[in-house]
Amino acid sequence: MNPNTARTMRAKFQVAGVEQVEHDGTVTAEKVRFHAVAKSGAYPADGSDEDNTFAKFTPQADCSITIANPALFGEFALGQKFHVDFTRAEAPAVAVTAAAEQPGEATTPQNPMAESIRGYRQFDAGTANYINAVKETGDVVAQMLQDARDLGADPRALALAQTKFQEAAMWLIRSVAKPEGLF
Known about the structure:
Number of helices: 3
Number of strands: 4
Shape: extended
Helix content: 25-40%
């Protein structure tokens, strides 16, 4: 795998358990346990059950998350299923809650600092996924630029190409992020 290329892996998890953590009679956190989707019986031969595809490529997975955000207490229930995307941390990403799966649904940034950035709105899952896709394209462009360097490309022309790619990505992202104000 090329270390300059970020890939995203999507898995499907099911809630296996929810445990409330209390301190002095007050819920302070929830521990949510997930496992990869699986079926005790056979899946339909025609592949019509989405869980079948996820179980084939991710046959075993377990994850435990402690949630300390009171706004999310009670949001996870035994048996619910969630798509979870894994993106290498070096790739910039806009984090959204796992509960938002449909484009257009409002989501809450998982990073509380995101709310303090003046002029930016909260992104729905579709917008966040689009922004992440544009940013992931940057890894492909970086490899193309390196390949051109390796072929002896003109450094000035290459620097201009890099700047133009960066500008194009910035305008694509800005077109859907729609920040308020001049800056």
